[in-house]
Amino acid sequence: MQIIDAHCHFWRLARGDYGWLAGEGGPLAPIRRDFLPGDYPAEAPRLIAVQAAPTVAETEFLLALAAEEPRIAGVVGWVDLTDPGAVETLQRLAADQKFKGIRPMLQDIADTDWLLTAPLPAVPVAVTSLGLRFDALVTQRHLPNLLRFVERHPDQPVVIDHAAKPQPEGRAGWEAGLRRLGENTNAFCKLSGLLTEFSLKMLARPADELRAILSRLLDWFGPERLIWGSDWPVLTLAADYDRWRALTAEALRDLSPAEQAAIMSGNAARFYGVTS
């Protein structure tokens, strides 16, 4: 089966703009080192490289990697949506065919209303008119406003990263918010970044937990709007790539071959406009 890993990261720490990776020790210690395309743990997949720093410089770094690495089919970068020069920056980046979209790091912004109030009005319009995609790095608290954003911009392709990071407890708001987005909009949802949100108890039975989440996502988005990704190397804080690949294969086993192929590659190709 063809695979597109629609969510992976590459970084070179000496670049100095990965604030969330700063410091020493702690739970992030295992990934506080360089991760580059040569370190990616599988040979075949096509890759979507997603930003990990809130700078245009990091987006340019990823595009430079993509120019050298054929497996990188697209880059989801970062642009300051409040910057008066944002439209010009988007136009410049979009001249590179591998620049596929943007991802503001909403989960790290304290103001839950930021997406509705902070971006300059011309910027979302430019994102859509340039044919770019919008990766929504959100958690449960953002879902009502993300729904409003999608309703305001119905022509903007949006994908919800990591299924909005469902938490081990208190999922009522997550279920309600994600259901509304799945059933009432054309948003896509990434089946990625889930294991690192699991509790230790959940990690003892990850296959059961993953199937429970997947059953809801299939009800809300259907197999035609779910997209597989690894979230490598952040994934390695909970499991290695092969383990995640095996768990998702098990979770998808009851779907038809066509539905599995859609989730593992076809939907990503369609959403990001790349070849599978």
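(ticket continues) Second input and output from the same batch:
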Amino acid sequence: MALSVQPLQPDFAGEVSGVDLTRPLSTDEVAAIEAGMDRYTVLVFHDQHLTDEQQMAFTRNFGAIETARGGNVTKPGEQRLPQGMNDVSNLGQDNRPLARDDRRRLFNLGNQLWHSDSSFRAVPAKYSILSCRLPANRGGNTEFADMRAAWDTLDPATKAEVEGLICEHSLIYSRGTLGFTDLTDEEKAQFRPVRQSLVRTHPVSGRRSLYLASHIGTIVGWPRPEAMAFIRELAEHATQPGFVYVHRWRQWDLVMWDNRQTMHRVRRFDDREPRDMRRTTVAGDAPTAEQVAA
């Protein structure tokens, strides 16, 4: 059966069938998946029994794997997964749920906020690829917001206002909204703010999208309270139910999304029980805005 993509949510999320991601893909299959990403921005693959190595091999079809440090507070030697894999589970090295007061767990609660992966890096991520090895028994859905629809439905005056604006993004900002401020000097240096454009243009489709995230801490040149009130208003607009696809995880689902055109968040779940989710990230190729010294 040939690879095909059927809409789950028109013009936003698609379901892919007719492909086995555990084996090497043909050039045509890679091109078809890329075309699906350009059209939908979120693609769902069911029943993909991947190893970590197979997931990384699949990821490399679309670019280099992002491997830079600075996306969590896990210390060297505490990693559960090999380099190239991002551990977004609630598990420690013993494959048991982290303690309620473990700072890694508390930091990772930030994944429940709307965000775009790696917008806190000067060169933000292209795609994220998330494999569900063990879903939560209750809760733990992932929601995706279509940032192209968010742009399309702004009124002309607001479009003119956001055009050209630059925001500062940092994990310090997003975790601070949850009260997580106990960072070491090294972590503060790793999480120093970077600048990102508030509006992006897709290089293939030419569609515009808002580039929002809970990592935003201000708009350059604006008083911070005014900036944050405006960003909150934009985020409320961008995450209204009509723009959101909700993915209810089954074991061995794989979901792939374009960070340049979406935000996402995980919903609360009972993390006294294991939830094993493993992400690979396709690195971006350029900054969205000129950087300055922090």
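Agent notes: The chain has one domain: 4-281. The CA atoms of residues 129 and 198 lie 24 Å apart. Closing as not reproducible unless the customer responds.
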